[in-house]
Amino acid sequence: MCGIFGILSNNKIDKKELLILANHARQRGKDSSGLIYFENGDYKINRSDYDIKKLLKNNGEITSNIILGHSRLITNGLHDNQPIVRENMFVLHNGIIVNYEDLWKKINLKPTLEIDTEIILGIVYDQMKKGVKLEEIPIKVLELCKGTISCALGIPEKGKLLLFSNNGSLYYGELNDNVYFSSESYPLKNLNCKNIKQILNDILILDIPTSKKLILNDIKLRTENLIPRVNIISSEEKLLKYEIHNLRRCKKCILPETMPFIEFDDEGICNYCKNYKLLNKQKPKEELFNLVEPYRRKNENDCIVPFSGGRDSSYALHLIVNELKMKPITYTYDWGMVTDLGRRNISRMCSALGVENIIIAADISKKRRNIRMNLI
Questions:
Q1: Rounded to whole angstroms, how far apart are CA atoms 334 and 325?
Q2: What is the SS3 string spanning 116-177?
Q3: How far apart are CA 132 and CA 324, in angstroms?
Q4: Between the CA of residue 105 and those of 89, 108, 110, 136, 172, what are the distances in Å?
Q5: For residue range 257-273, what is the model confidence (pLDDT) as tens digits?
């Protein structure tokens, strides 16, 4: 999950405008970063495993009139930073693709990296070989991939940059004939952009300078593993298995006989059910519909939903979208201990429901150090 951004200008990039976009993107993740800019007829791509602020400082002055970038929260491929480059194309991707391993087999290509984002370029290359029209390729990417995709796809040989998204976490605006894009609308409003629009199940195709050369510079300094693999120890794995056949359960609430202090009466009802007292009288759902009615907006998001990717918040999001028929923006704070499964559930739900997700990520290493200090 990342913050992605870009400026396509008629003149040299304004450094203040670039910093506004970059600083907002880094709220989504500070684990790694990347920049793409056009200079002396070539596309130069710098990737680093540190903060976008440091990358911009170390990069020096950029004289290009085109710059794209990202600030990343690592979820796949610890050492495989974005932008991803393959077959003389590049992509910046915000989101998580949960079925990328199966897709490599489907398109009969092999990955060169661990990161899920690479599959986007694999699909694009496969579709181009089949003669699929450029404007139809993003449709195929969104059709095949499961999970959230908001990305900027660059095909320099054709002189095109394609912006597309399946959950709306991508916006673009205009100012003085320049085009700006970002994972959120807020920084575009700060730049006083006009005609700010959300990209959702749509494609924006922009012209960029043609080039047959991408110059890639990788900076890898990290030693700490932010996404360690789980080591399976067979002897300990066996301790997790507890098989009971014909397990007795409460006929009303299905609590099992392994529940501490549980007892069953002659009818098979447990003592927890018998002692339960209803604290709140259930109200008809029509009251909830009446309650939210004043907050509905035409063609705009009308509520914010805190979203962890867990069971409760996922079900609540389903109800809000499919039952209440509201248009939410989901909000996630990743404090360093959000699980891999939780992140993937966020991706699955937001893509399936077409819901924008704003994620704010802490300094993961620093947060985990604080947690360790409090546990010791």
A1: 27
A2: CCHHHHHHHHHHHHCCCCHHHHHHHHHHHCCECCEEEEEEHHHCEEEEEECCCCCEEEEECC
A3: 39
A4: 21, 5, 8, 22, 34
A5: 999 999 999 999 999 99
Distant-in-sequence contacts of 127-131, Cβ < 8 A, 24+ apart: none
Is the pLDDT reported for residue 121 higher than 90? yes
Strands (E), the chain: 2-8, 32-39, 42-48, 66-72, 84-86, 89-94, 150-155, 160-165, 171-175, 178-182, 194-198, 203-207, 214-219, 303-306, 328-334, 356-361
Which one-letter DSSP state was computed for residue 332? E
- Residue in the structure block whose two tokens are 């991939």: 145
Q: One-letter amino acid identity for 231?
A: N
Secondary structure (3-state) at 240 = helix
Only one residue has tokens 């990342």, namely: 2
How confident is the model at residue 219, as a pLDDT?
85
Better pLDDT: 47 or 223: 47
pTM for the model: 0.83
CA–CA distance from 214 to each of 5, 86, 109 (Å)? 19, 10, 22
**Can you say how many angstroms the Cα of residue 201 is from the centroid of all Cα atoms in its chain?**
16
In the DSSP assignment, the letter for residue 198 is E
